[in-house]
Each structure stands twice: as C-alpha cells, then as structure tokens.
Structure prediction request, 149 residues.
Amino acid sequence: MNIPFLDHWLGRHGERDKGAEAAATEHDPERAAAITELLSECELLRARAAQAGLELDDSPSSLTGLDQLPPRWRDDPEELPWLGNDAGLYLGTVIVRTVPGAVWHIWPGGHPVVRLASGREISVVEAGVEWAFNGAPELSQVYGEAAEA
Prediction:
C-alpha cells in the first residue's frame, strides 16, 4: 500500500530525490527512529482495540490479543481496509521493536516492508489487510515466523 504522507516526508528530507528510501531506515539511526515512530501510530487500530479493552503496548503478546478479538470491524466495509493497513503497520512496529536486526524498508513508491537481519522482507501491510478481511494469517503467527528467521 502506498503511504502518501510518507512520500511527502521523504521528499521534504531529500530522500525522494535521491531514491534512497532504504538508506533512510538502514543507515541513519535517527531517521530510522523517526520513521518507526511515524509508522507506529496506527490510530484506528489502537482506538478499536481500546474499545475492546485491549491495550496495544507494542509487544508480541498484544498481537495475540488482537488475534483473539471478535472481528466486529468486518461490519464496516469502509473502515475495513484502513484497519487492515493499521494492523499491518502495527505488526511491523512490533517486529522492528522486538526482533534483533529488523528494520523498516521503504520501497520506491512508498510501500513499507520490514527487512529482517537475514535480508528477508515481510509485506506486513499485506498481512494486516489479509488478517482484517479473513482472520488469517494471524498476526502472532507472522510475528513468530519473523522472530525465528
């Protein structure tokens, strides 16, 4: 999924012109932290989780909690893709913050993925959208596979 505000942010910081989206996260710790903070907001997901009594604390156990929530968001087809996008960004946030060597990598065009220390890339947004629409793959399962890699 393309994230226009990220394109704008990268453009303001000179990264869009250089075509160095990957360098923005992999070689500059300060910029990596800023991108991680930006992508971790996930306001809609956090609001829906809080309504269900679940606090999202950026831990792997919170992914299990999300997997166990009744999927009431599926009742709102307009909200569903946005919630899925947030779920993917949240999954990526948990991976980046808890799996050693994991970093955000921004593909040309603004598509965020998580790159593991092994070089494997995980399309977390796609996983989050699939989870929101279908309940699978479970977010905790994607996390478990990333943590083992």
Summary: The chain is about 60% helix and 5% strand. The beta strands are 103-106, 112-115, 121-122. The first strand starts at residue 103 and ends at 106. The longest helix spans residues 80-98.
